[in-house]
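Aggregate trends can hide what the representation actually does to any particular protein. This step matters because it turns folding into a mapping between discrete strings. For completeness, the protein is quoted in full, as a sequence line and a line of structure tokens:
=====
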Amino acid sequence: MNRNQDNLRALGHTSLIPDNYSPEILESFENRHPERDYWVQLNCPEFTTLCPITGQPDFAELRIMYIPDQRMVESKSLKLYLFSFRNHGDFHEDCVNTILDDLVKLMEPRYIEVLGLFVPRGGISIHPYANYGRPGTRYEQLADERLRNYKSGQ
């Protein structure tokens, strides 16, 4: 087995879909190109969560973009993690910020951003965006710049 995959539990195995928010499902692997900056974009067009007030489902497309450092998120574990929000009640903004925080903790990326394109409910759509750039580096400046120039849906 490849040294990058030695500690992965979900990839290549049958996995149960979690009943509720489960950040412990997230797994990472070694970035084989840490000497270079490059973007990784992960799209989840079928993200669902529950309204914490009404319990009704909310639907969104999630877009996660990051510049890795030493670790990268394993995509099957990310899928299972995102599934864990299906029975979890949280506001749209909270979901996006929680996902960002969990991925920063897991990978310690140079830069990461999470955008939630939530389907309108009651005639209003919400598109929360959160980002992180490693403090004290040019990635912190990148985060500031991208937040200042943020345009929904891009």
